[in-house]
Amino acid sequence: MESSKLQRLKSRIARTPLFSNIGLPIVNASNPRIVRWDAWLGPEDPTCLAIAIRQQELHDDLVPPEEEQEWVAALNLVVDYVATLIPYEPDEDVWHAPSAAAWGAAWVFSLEHLHAARGVALPSDTAAQLVWFERGHWPCALVDGASGENLKDYVIF
């Protein structure tokens, strides 16, 4: 993404209270919760893996190979910002919950940015995840059997 597009993405995430409410109570929501980083089920749990697979599908549908470098720049921009907010560790693997959360936010905000740039409606599952990030939480897994299209479909930190 050219620098003006990346600047818009940076402004977008800077206006968002990312991770400011992790572990805190949620008013008017009955979602299952985790309250500690180490309570996350991990990347291979089907309820977590489903989110990652869906995000990859959306990426594959929208990012042609010649734009992959721009996509990576957008992801890195978000991760670098989020790394100042949570205990992200760049050398950790996908089992490290704060690192997984940082990359999850990067994918959601980069997908939102890409959909807007293409003039394509944001899918309901990505929109739902975005709302949780905007509320300062991490939508870290799907509720068993949920589609991800609604706010209630997520396990929240």
Entry keywords:
157 residues, mainly alpha, two-stranded antiparallel ribbon, 49% helix, globular
| Class from helix and strand fractions | mainly alpha
Shape: globular
Portion of residues in beta strands equals under 5%
User: Biggest sheet, open or closed, and with what strands and sense?
Assistant: 2 strands, antiparallel
* Oligomer state of the chains in this structure: single chain
Number of helix segments?
Answer: 5
Q: What string gives the helices and strands in order?
A: HHHHHEE
Considering DSSP H and I runs of 4 or more, what fraction of the residues is helical?
40-55%
- How much is the average pLDDT? 96
Strand order of the largest sheet: 1-2
Radius of gyration: 15 Å
Terminal Cα span: 30 Å
Strand element count: 2
Compact description:
This protein has 5 helices and 2 strands, in the order αααααββ. It is mostly helical and 157 residues long.
